[in-house]
Write a structure and sequence with these properties.
Elements: H1 2-37, E1 56-60, E2 62-63, E3 70-71, E4 76-81, E5 86-91, E6 97-101, H2 106-109, E7 113-118, E8 136-140, E9 147-149, H3 162-194, H4 201-216, E10 223-224, E11 227-228, H5 230-259, H6 264-286, E12 302-304, E13 307-309, H7 311-333, H8 335-345, H9 347-352, H10 357-383, H11 389-404, H12 409-425, H13 435-449
Parallel strand pairs: 1-9
Antiparallel strand pairs: 1-6, 2-3, 4-5, 4-7, 7-8, 10-11, 12-13
Helix pairs in contact: 1-5, 1-7, 1-10, 3-7, 3-10, 3-11, 3-12, 4-5, 4-6, 4-10, 4-11, 5-10, 7-8, 7-10, 8-10, 11-12, 11-13, 12-13
Length: about 450
């Protein structure tokens, strides 16, 4: 069995990477074609990175009543101290961006609170704030990095029915839930084979997004037959780097801890410390700013009946579906997948039957990290990212995994679909700021009735 595993591991990883490559190339071509067919006016063009030791308050104003949203120029923005003194002003440019430098150095402003105000009478004719009472935002600076704020503009177009809005939100929720599913699947596989509740899994998500961003920022474009495939190459490099990072983690950290007989609770605490360490490393190298990839920043959406979807989101959706199907089929039907399930059921019995348990766990760590890294890249493509991307959604990944059943791959998929779609559709009835809270309330209610999760097996404790 060990010899077979040695040959099957690169084969399985090669198949997954080939599937990712094929889907990304198709998605890239479709997006490039759509962009060239009808490029929209640029909005929210980010300023160039600075090297000065100051903190800026930036933002972008767009009118959501148009599809895609239209930039709102010439709007007056001011920043005041808590005493009411104006410390800076600016007007939005033609892409909707405003940029106000705060007085003093970045260290001087840590802990300070400022009030960002918009002059409602400076908005273009026919443009209005979504919430007329929200003309001022309080901002407390806890980090020595720029702070982004926004004032929602526009309202829901007249005549849009509740069903249409719910369907549009469900489409967005489906895209997010599939990306959540990839991260949850990796977490569930690692827990199933090792019993480790890995709190550093969020950093595996962030790692993939940062590696892809590093490749994307290299000078020049990568073109194949005239098509810009820089982002495709960035995604592939990120997946390969994430797979290697997962293997190195197991080889250098988790395997030695297992061999020393480290308990599950102690290992979980180690993962918390490792998470904090990696997050600080990411902040050092990537900074605290929000980042976006160079391609597909503002593609023109496709209208599919009553809903709109961008070529970028469509490519992300197809990629996620192909990868999830490939991984689940590999776990169910290949020898390495059967060996993985054997180790998850009974490691001692699997070892006595000739399975190299350490090698199987290394494969699981590699695949789990690769899935998390790919999830991070695709999340960054859909919403941008910063060094805390994985940390921000880690609770949702845990919620999806626990809701479906810890260690159950189908449970991770089902739980992710429920959580992802619910949090988006719930914004029809609750403020968007509370949508994650609603998902966690659903999780608590389900666990009160079925603690093992929807597809988990009940087990005796003690």
């Amino acid at each position: 069995m060990p010899t077979r595993l040695r040959h099957l591991v690169p084969r399985s990883l090669s198949l997954v990477l080939a599937a990712v490559l094929a889907v990304l190339v198709v998605g890239g071509v479709l997006t490039a074609t759509a962009g060239s067919a009808g490029a929209a006016e640029p909005t929210c063009v980010r300023p160039q990175p600075r090297t000065d030791d100051t903190i800026h308050i930036l933002g972008c104003l767009t009118d959501s009543r148009t599809t895609p949203p239209k930039a709102v120029p010439d709007a007056s923005i001011s920043v005041e101290s808590e005493d009411g003194d104006v410390v800076g002003t600016d007007t939005t440019d033609q892409t909707g961006i405003f940029d106000i430098a705060l007085p003093g150095t970045s260290t001087d402003n840590i802990g300070e609170t400022y009030v960002v105000k918009i002059a409602r009478d400076s908005l273009p004719k026919g443009t209005k704030l979504r919430n007329p009472k929200q003309e001022a935002l309080r901002v407390t600076l806890n980090l020595d990095s720029d702070r982004f704020v926004t004032f929602p503009i526009g309202d829901i177009p007249q005549g849009t029915s509740l069903g249409t809005r719910a369907l549009q939100l469900a489409v967005g929720g489906l895209v997010f839930s599939l990306l959540l599913a990839m991260a949850a699947l990796g977490l569930s596989m690692i827990f199933g084979t090792t019993g480790l509740t890995n709190f550093a899994h969020g950093e595996l998500i962030t790692f993939g997004a940062i590696v892809a961003y590093g490749v994307d920022r290299l000078p020049g474009d990568i073109r194949v037959f005239g098509t810009n495939v820089t982002m495709v190459v960035s995604v592939l490099v990120a997946v390969v780097a994430s797979v290697a990072f997962g293997w190195l983690q197991d080889k250098g950290l988790w395997r030695p801890l297992r061999h020393r007989g480290t308990g599950i609770i102690a290992a979980m605490i180690v993962s918390i410390g490792f998470s904090v360490f990696l997050r600080n490393v990411f902040q050092y190298f990537a900074g605290a700013d929000n980042h976006n990839y160079s391609q597909w920043t503002n593609p023109k959406p496709w209208s599919l009946g009553p809903v709109d979807i961008t070529p970028k989101d469509f490519g992300v959706l197809v990629t996620a579906v192909v990868v999830l199907v490939a991984v689940t089929l590999a776990v169910q039907r290949t020898r390495i997948g059967k060996a993985t399930r054997a180790v998850a059921d009974n490691p001692a019995l699997a070892a006595s039957s000739g399975i190299n348990v350490d090698r199987v766990i290394s494969v699981v760590w590699s695949v789990g990290a690769g899935l998390a890294g790919l999830s991070g890249v695709l999340l960054g493509m859909t919403q941008g990212f910063d060094y805390q991307l994985g940390f921000k959604i880690l609770l949702l990944v845990f919620a999806a995994t626990i809701l479906g059943g810890l260690g159950n791959i189908w449970g991770a998929l089902v739980g992710s679909l429920i959580i992802g779609i619910f949090i988006e559709v719930s914004t029809l009835f609750i403020p968007a700021e509370l949508k994650f809270v609603g998902a966690l309330v659903v999780l608590i209610l389900v666990l009160l009735v079925r603690p093992q999760g929807l597809l988990g097996r009940a087990e005796r404790v003690g």
